Automatic annotation (TrEMBL), chain A:
CDD domains assigned to the protein according to its UniProt record, in alphabetical order: TM_PBP1_LivH_like (cd06582)
Organism per entry: Streptomyces malaysiensis
GO cellular component, one term: plasma membrane
Protein name as it appears in the record: ABC transporter permease
A Pfam family annotated for this UniProt entry: BPD_transp_2
InterPro entries: ABC_transp_permease, BCAA_transport_permease
UniProtKB/TrEMBL annotation, chain B:
CDD domains, per the entry: PBP1_ABC_LIVBP-like
Domain of life: Bacteria
Protein name: Branched-chain amino acid ABC transporter substrate-binding protein
The organism of origin for this protein: Streptomyces malaysiensis subsp. samsunensis
Keyword entries, A-Z: Signal
Pfam family, one: Peripla_BP_6
Family stated for the protein in its record: Belongs to the leucine-binding protein family.
InterPro entries: Leu-bd, Peripla_BP_I
Limits of the Leucine-binding protein domain: 40-398
Length: 310, 410
């Protein structure tokens, strides 16, 4: 059990990353019942936005100084693309058949990926991302936290706290809850639902940008394809935690990350299971968990039972 | 009404963006205007021109293009103009198969160069074989492609008569790597990781066998998934296993990240891999240089061969957008082998292409022999290159430096 703490921390950081991206899926789904499959690409574009700012800054700028600017750059890029996607790709199809925006989302995802591949300089290979200087923090002899991970572990709870306060306390947040419950009634009460929907996309985009910046700092590189797997895992996390519930998205992400980390490390130590462990099988175990959770709680870990609206 | 016009606009923009990206990725250039008196022979190129391996794929495409241009300039084959037509397989086997079918349908294509990935090659071989269309891969290293599925038990038989390659097989590369680790670097406990692909898994298995045969110990074996970025779980296992070295069968995008994360986990051990990680992008995967990591690659270093210098110069003169990358030399040689085979066929047939040109070219390919960019180019009875020169490269101060070059002996 000597390596258990390290394994859990690895799982926690990975899970927090999934959770930050999952917020975007869950917010949008909660309000317009749309699975925004282009969200993985919005995450990726956030990373490139942050990198662009870093390149623009005079070389030699300390990362700690550049970081807030990079965060702003990433957020601007992600939010711009997310709201533009809402305005031009999803809103015209609202009220149409359910499948139409879904297919649009997939198309948009491919288009965004290829656009970065084709037009961002040197994006055909992974672009390296600035990293913190210095060694990792040693908490105990058997537990180290990388500097890049530390950023993620601080940023994720702060973002969740801010989002929780915003949704429950602010006027716009309460309007958002009302729209999620019943868009038509909310409209009758004088809520501009179009604005609320744009806001949901924008918040999702901003969280994706924070995730992308963390991803860059953690792994030291970003590439035009990174949205695909990250998006898929985050979507899984959102479903696991109960899609539509923001705390569920974060919880689902963390559970998913920890299960993956434990599966890599420990499954093959169980007698008779050495063929079914390791990195090759971690996704199998993660999805087995998802199936089991959905069998017992079809609404996900924290999901609420909602009557299916027409 | 406004609503509808917006919908139309969105559709138009999305469609436009998709078309644009498709154009960008698949520019099938027609650059040499054929004269009426000349026959046009097209060399098909199949490589990943988009996706994470596109840097390698673009290098392959450009190098074959260069071979065709040089052949046209020197009038290498009298009365024949060479053209190149490229196909994007995105490193996906099913796309490779589609491309192979398109090439077979195009009667001007007399030979194909590619693909990059062994897994893609498996899907293409049958299509080419049925059409008698010769295929020369500059990069496939999986032994089964040329020596049959039972090569490991010693029962070698060539499954497809149309398949040739200028790259050496994993048998040689994996064993060469094991010998270097055991004999030169004095490593005794290795942790073996692969990416579950035909190339990576095959290479890692051969390496592990040879390492054990030499007397070393394989202290752990694990697999990772292509396109993922988090390998912290595997890295921790490397650390706790007490391994003094890691061997990775796979490509540079995962290899570079794996190396960083193994070191971050606290295991200060080198990672060695095959030609799949021999790429500048491996070093720069995450900003910090992975000094001490190793890679084997086929052939001698470009700086040590005069023929290669000419290639590098000619490539530079063309001002291609992407560098020739790891397989440029082999791709040029693969293209040149097809050109030489066409030359032999045309000369045998009074300066004209025969009706069964494809079958004749395939036959002639087995007999070509010339001094290419990567050394002597010729093929053995399985279609494998007879060139068994290999080099070990080491990351030194942020660049690959050759540390040992040798002709492999059993």
């Amino acid at each position: 059990m000597h390596e258990l703490p390290q394994t859990l921390v690895n799982g926690l950081t990975l899970g927090a990353l999934y959770g930050l991206i999952a917020i975007g899926y869950t917010m949008v789904y909660g309000i317009v019942q749309l699975i925004n499959f282009a969200h993985g690409e919005i995450f990726m574009i956030g990373g490139f936005g942050a990198l662009t700012i870093y390149i623009w800054l005079p070389s030699g700028t300390a990362l700690s100084l550049a970081l807030p600017l990079m965060l702003i750059g990433g957020v601007i890029a992600s939010v711009a693309i997310a709201t533009a996607a809402e305005r031009f790709a999803y809103r015209p199809l609202r009220g149409g058949p359910r499948l139409a925006p879904l297919i649009t989302a997939i198309g948009l995802s491919i288009a965004l990926q290829q656009a970065v591949w084709a037009f961002y300089p040197d994006a055909k290979k992974p672009r390296s991302f600035p990293q913190f200087e210095g060694s990792s923090f040693e908490i105990f002899s058997n537990l180290q936290i990388q500097r890049g991970d530390a950023f993620l572990l601080i940023a994720a709870p702060l973002c969740m706290l801010a989002l929780g306060l915003f949704v429950s306390k602010s006027r716009a947040g309460r309007a958002m809850q009302a729209t999620a419950q019943d868009p038509d009634t909310a409209k009758l009460m004088g809520i501009n639902t179009d604005r609320i929907i744009v806001m949901a996309f924008a918040i999702g985009g901003a969280f994706a940008a924070v995730a992308a910046l963390s991803h860059g700092l953690k792994y030291g590189q970003i590439n035009f394809e990174m949205g695909f797997i990250a998006g898929l895992k985050a979507f899984t996390a959102a479903v696991l935690g109960g899609i539509g519930n923001i705390y569920g998205a974060m919880l689902g992400g963390v559970v998913l990350g920890i299960v993956e980390a434990l599966a890599i490390k420990y499954i093959q130590d169980i007698p008779g299971m050495d063929q079914l462990g390791g990195g090759a099988w971690k996704d199998v175990w993660a999805f087995t968990l998802l199936i089991v959770v959905l069998l017992v709680r079809p609404q996900g870990l924290l999901g609420e039972r909602v009557a299916d609206r027409a | 009404m406004r609503h509808r016009s917006l919908l139309i606009m969105t559709t138009a923009i999305t469609a436009g963006a998709l078309t644009l990206s498709a154009c960008g990725s698949r520019d099938n250039k027609d650059d040499s205007g054929g004269k009426d008196s000349k026959t046009t022979v097209v060399i098909g190129v199949d490589a990943p021109l988009t996706g994470s391996l596109s840097a390698l794929g673009q290098g392959i495409k450009n190098s074959v293009d260069l071979a065709a241009k040089i052949a046209n300039k020197n009038n290498e084959v009298d009365g024949v103009t060479f053209k190149v037509k490229s196909f994007d397989d995105q490193a996906v086997p099913s796309s490779g198969k589609q491309n192979a079918t398109s090439m077979v349908d195009d009667e001007e294509i007399l030979g194909a160069v590619g693909p990059l990935n062994s897994g893609v090659a498996q899907s293409m071989q049958g299509v080419f074989d049925r059409a008698d269309l010769a295929q020369v891969s500059p990069a496939n290293t999986n032994p089964a492609l040329s020596q049959g599925d039972d090569w490991a038990s010693g029962k070698k038989s060539r499954p497809f008569k149309t398949y040739f390659r200028t790259a050496t097989t994993d048998i040689i590369q994996g064993r060469f790597a094991a010998q270097y680790y055991y004999k030169d670097a004095k490593k005794r406990k290795v942790f073996v990781i692969d990416d579950k692909q035909a190339y990576g898994n095959g290479l890692a298995t051969i390496f592990a066998q040879e390492f054990k045969r030499l007397g070393g110990k394989v202290v752990g074996r694990d697999h990772l998934t292509v396109k993922e970025t988090d390998f912290s779980g595997i890295s921790n296992k490397v650390k706790s296993s007490g391994a003094d070295s890691v061997y990775f069968g796979g490509q540079y995008p995962e290899g570079g990240l794996l190396s960083d994360q193994v070191k971050q986990a606290g295991a200060q051990v080198p990672i060695m891999g095959g030609d799949g990680i021999y790429d500048p992008a491996f070093i720069k995967a995450s900003g910090t240089s992975n000094d001490g990591d190793l890679a084997t690659s086929v052939g001698y270093p470009v700086e040590q061969l005069d023929s290669a210098k000419t290639f590098v110069k000619n490539y530079g003169d063309q001002h291609y957008k992407d560098p020739y990358a790891a397989y440029g030399g082999y791709s040029y040689d693969a293209g040149w082998a097809i050109i030489q085979a066409v030359k032999a066929v045309v000369e045998d047939n009074d300066g004209k292409l025969p009706d069964d040109a494809r079958a004749k070219v395939t036959e002639a390919l087995g007999k070509v022999s010339f001094d290419g960019v990567t050394g002597k180019v010729s093929f053995d009875q399985y279609g494998d290159t007879t060139n068994k020169q290999l080099t070990v490269y080491k990351v030194t101060k942020g660049a690959w430096k050759s540390v040992k070059s040798e002709t492999f002996k059993d």
